[in-house]
């Protein structure tokens, strides 16, 4: 790689659009794009999921049983290969079953850097519910079943990792629920839960989040608040947990108090102390009563992005309502970013009855938020999946569906609820739902959609004789626009190209018209892509720099790169040549092609052969 690429490349700026139907099921997954499996029980508790870096999907949940009025629930985790088949190297025939106290439910799943699987769990002993004198649940011995929090850690093969607490799990008995878990770079674990506390002088109980930190072996970390759990100062239940790059900890939750409605984000120092430089330690943002906080992300520039569901009530009796998606972006110091949406916030009404499930990032850095809306009122129990796309600057994307909202044409039956939405590294979309099966047991429906995936699409090459520049795109709409002159005169197809497809997305960068470089550059996601993103963050917009545009088509890393590079079986080399424009004082450009002859043609004119940079499907 020539680091001088940061200053060179030339092409005219165009707007990139979508060219695939995102809600088309992917026929390469399962049976016609979906999988269904039974939990073997008439009731289940929650469904959570995560995609591994290798593309395998992990789905978790709990099977609830009732025997002689006593409730219990066993947790399960299933892993599927990229094609949707069960991963038989995981657990027993692809499934792992385990328990903490016997009546357990999983609230979150995440991965450690070493591939181990972390679960945030709420746990209690099996029990019989009662309502007098106050609601509760009693064990066989007649004692109250106490609800606690726990972290479960599994090995990559699905077995319990006994290096955590000696049993594969560790309990926190000083708070309940086990809502979120996060792992620090040093391997320490954060567990977010809740506790009910009296609020004085008013005689009422409020629920607050609690946060504890554990060492990698499951012992309490005494360097974090002396080993005790940290309490919320916002009077909120925690639903979002984020470790920032500098080690600071963000916790977000929903607030329904009359004086502070909406969401509240708090920042802690790495030792658990409240960071008062962050807007006095907490940020309230008013999104109305009954807002639900779902996601919290730190962007490359250090800004903070939050998203979830809001509800607005109107009319004389406040009975009418509109429910939709909210997003907000904050500066690193906690102040709303005026360059995002409407003075830092975005509100998009969806329907009178709408439930937000989750969100993921699009190729261009936008948010795709997913949920379901009831068709004929909440009691009718018929719904459809609804997606909203929020642009990186906080507006609805007019190119997505109908002015930023995309509704599924399929109507789902009663109790078949969408529970999860996520994407893989090549931008397929997964939707995970509970489904009532013909034997009345609860099943899990996993669907993989095309989403923004570009596998199998041709990557087309263009050439401009006046500029002596090359350009490639896998977007059919973009290619058609170039054919029609959207990028200026002189661009013609060369007839060369290759197929998109592989395990790694390609990062697409563009400079600028001024100060430049007026061109695009492509590199596989990884160290080079990350380096250019960091240089963008460190370089003023008044200076030449590469600006990240989107994750583009997918390809595969070479076995070895460079001049004598090679590719794995069933793939062919993709070469790159550089026109050495920086040294010549002109806009630089790269030719990317599977044709060795095409590369040699520009090399004979003084271009530099960079060798194999990626591998395309054969």
Automatic annotation (TrEMBL):
Q: Which InterPro entries match?
A: Delta_60_rpt (IPR013431), DUF5648 (IPR043708), Quinoprot_gluc/sorb_DH_b-prop (IPR011041)
Top-level division of the source organism's lineage: Bacteria
Q: Does the keyword Signal apply?
A: yes
Give the UniProt keywords, A-Z.
Answer: Signal
Ranges for domain DUF5648 come to 453-535, 566-614
The record's section on Pfam families has:
DUF5122, DUF5648
* UniProt keyword annotation of Cell wall biogenesis/degradation present: no
Q: Which residues form the signal peptide?
A: 1-20
- NCBIfam families registered for this protein in UniProt: delta_60_rpt
Mind telling me what this protein is named? DUF5648 domain-containing protein
Q: State the organism named in the record.
A: Candidatus Nitrotoga fabula
């Amino acid at each position: 790689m020539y680091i001088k690429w940061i200053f060179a490349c030339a092409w005219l700026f165009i707007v990139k659009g979508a060219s695939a139907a995102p809600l088309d099921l992917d026929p390469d997954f399962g049976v016609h794009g979906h999988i269904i499996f039974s939990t073997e029980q008439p009731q289940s508790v929650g469904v959570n999921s995560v995609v591994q870096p290798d593309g395998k999907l992990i789905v978790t949940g709990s099977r609830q049983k009732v025997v002689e009025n006593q409730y219990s629930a066993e947790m399960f985790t299933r892993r599927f290969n990229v094609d949707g088949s069960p991963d038989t190297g995981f657990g027993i025939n692809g499934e792992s079953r385990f328990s903490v106290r016997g009546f357990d439910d999983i609230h979150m799943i995440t991965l450690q850097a070493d591939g181990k699987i972390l679960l945030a769990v709420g746990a209690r002993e099996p029990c019989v519910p009662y309502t007098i004198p106050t609601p509760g649940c009693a064990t066989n011995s007649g004692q109250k079943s106490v609800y606690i929090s726990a972290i479960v850690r599994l090995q990559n093969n699905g077995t319990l990792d006994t290096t955590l607490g000696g049993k594969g799990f560790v309990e926190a008995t000083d708070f309940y629920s086990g809502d979120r878990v996060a792992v620090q770079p040093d391997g320490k674990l954060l567990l977010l839960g809740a506790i009910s506390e009296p609020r004085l002088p008013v005689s009422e109980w409020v629920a607050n989040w609690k946060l504890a930190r554990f060492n990698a072996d499951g012992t309490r970390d005494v360097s974090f608040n002396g080993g005790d759990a940290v309490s919320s100062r916002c009077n909120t239940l925690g639903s979002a947990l984020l470790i920032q790059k500098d080690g600071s900890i963000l916790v977000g939750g929903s607030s329904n108090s009359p004086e502070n409605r909406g969401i509240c984000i708090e920042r802690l120092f790495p030792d658990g102390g409240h960071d008062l430089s962050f807007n006095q330690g907490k940020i309230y943002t008013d999104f109305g009563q009954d807002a639900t906080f779902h996601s919290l992300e730190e962007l490359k520039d250090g800004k903070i992005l939050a998203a979830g569901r809001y509800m607005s009530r109107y009319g004389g009796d406040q009975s009418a309502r509109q429910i939709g998606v909210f997003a907000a972006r904050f500066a690193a110091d906690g102040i709303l970013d005026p360059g995002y949406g409407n003075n830092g916030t975005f509100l998009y009404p969806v329907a009178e009855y709408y439930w937000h499930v989750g969100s993921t990032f699009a190729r261009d850095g936008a948010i795709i938020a997913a949920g379901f809306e009831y068709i004929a009122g909440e009691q009718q129990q018929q719904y459809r999946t609804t997606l909203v796309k929020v642009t990186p600057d906080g507006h609805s994307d007019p190119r997505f569906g109908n002015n930023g909202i995309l509704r599924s044409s399929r109507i789902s039956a009663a109790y078949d609820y969408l529970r999860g939405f996520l994407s893989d590294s090549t931008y397929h979309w997964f939707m995970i739902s509970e489904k009532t099966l013909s034997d009345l047991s609860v099943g899990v429906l996993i669907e993989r959609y095309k989403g923004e995936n570009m596998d199998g699409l041709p990557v087309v090459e263009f050439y401009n004789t006046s500029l002596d520049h090359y350009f490639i795109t896998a977007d059919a709409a973009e290619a058609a626009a170039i054919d029609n002159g959207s990028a200026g005169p002189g661009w013609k197809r060369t007839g060369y190209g290759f197929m998109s497809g592989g395990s790694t997305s390609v990062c697409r960068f563009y400079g600028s018209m001024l100060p430049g470089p007026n061109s695009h550059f492509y590199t596989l996601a990884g160290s080079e892509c990350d380096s250019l993103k960091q240089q963008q963050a460190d370089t003023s917009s008044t200076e030449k720099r590469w600006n990240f545009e989107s994750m583009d088509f997918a390809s595969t890393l070479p076995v070895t790169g460079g001049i004598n590079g090679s590719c794995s079986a069933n793939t062919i080399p993709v070469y790159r040549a550089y026109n050495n424009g920086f040294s010549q004082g002109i806009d630089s450009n790269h030719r990317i092609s599977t044709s060795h002859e095409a590369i040699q043609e520009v090399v004979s004119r003084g271009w530099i052969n960079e060798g194999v940079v990626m591998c395309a499907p054969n």
